[in-house]
Amino acid sequence: MSEIRATTISDAAGTGPITLTKQSAAKSYVNISGSSLTNPASLTGINGSFNVASVLDVQTGEATVSFTSTMNNNDYSVVGTTNQSNDVSGRNSNFGAYALGTSSYTFCTCRASTAAVEDGFVVSATAHGDLA
């Protein structure tokens, strides 16, 4: 069995750390408490994130996630999930991402049984693609 330990993995020139730009790895993730989001955009309501500068509460059930480092184009993929409560009754919810841009995307959450737009109790989203 082998083990690799490193503090920094440098680029080919040895001038700095590498970044994930073309590798097949998530380029952004966010875990949000939907009812805690704010307008104007801030980090309020974000439980955990990577490559997320802020989240804007657009309206009930709708928010815009802004990246810290931009995506190469708007052809990336966003995968998300949400629930409407902290128990088994909240599991039937829908998540949809749209308005994908290089610096942000918008999502909407709603209850699956009624299609009523609602803030997700917990919303998790991941973006896959290439960074600029």
Please provide a brief summary of the model.
The chain is an all-beta fold and 132 residues long. The protein is built from no helices and eight strands. The protein has one domain.
Topology:
Elements: E1 26-32, E2 46-50, E3 52-59, E4 62-67, E5 77-83, E6 93-98, E7 104-111, E8 122-128
Features:
132 residues, mainly beta, 4-stranded antiparallel β-sheet, 8 strands, 41% strand
What does this structure look like?
Helices cover 0% and strands 41% of the residues. The chain is an all-beta fold. It has one domain (26-128). The strands form two sheets. A four-stranded antiparallel β-sheet has the order 2-1-8-5, with no helix packed on it. Strands 3-4-7-6 form a four-stranded antiparallel β-sheet, with no helix packed on it.
Rounded Rg: 17 Å
**How many angstroms does the end-to-end distance come to?**
36 Å
Structural class: mainly beta
What fraction, in percent, of the residue positions are helical?
under 10%
